[in-house]
Amino acid sequence: MNLFESIKASRDIKDKSVKTYITSLKKIHENLETSIDFDNLDWLKPINKVVSILNELKLTTRKNYTNAIIVALMTEADKYKDTLTAYKEYLATILSDYNEMVSTQQKSKK
Asked: Following DSSP, what letter does each residue of 75-109 receive, concatenated?
């Protein structure tokens, strides 16, 4: 089963939503320049490398990409428990920054 099918099977969402997640994940995968196959989520394990890529993006994009990572990792939650926890913690910091930005009505920074 490929990643698209895994996400679709694990969540009750439309194909368009799954495609959005896959597009976000592919962009991260391309930037990592890894030899690990896209459907093998081990490429998300070097968290520091992934986060350094995400930190180059606008806050809202970073939030969306991190959500996509979490959704993908949840398809194999037992296997990626520690990695999933780390990304959830990272998302919590993003959401804190995002909520502060929204409350002050500031434009997001890259």
From this structure: GGTTTTHHHHHHHHHHHHHHHHHHHHHHHHTPPP-
Using one digit for the tens of pLDDT, what is the confidence trace for 56-95?
999 999 999 999 999 999 999 999 999 999 999 999 999 9
Residue type at 73 in one-letter notation: L
C-alpha torsion sign, points 94, 95, 96, 100: positive
Q: What is the pTM of this model?
A: 0.90
* Cα dihedral value 10, 19, 43, 77, nearest 10: -10
Q: How far apart are CA 88 and CA 37, in angstroms?
A: 23
- Tokens, residue 61: 């994009």
d(CA 69, CA 87): 8
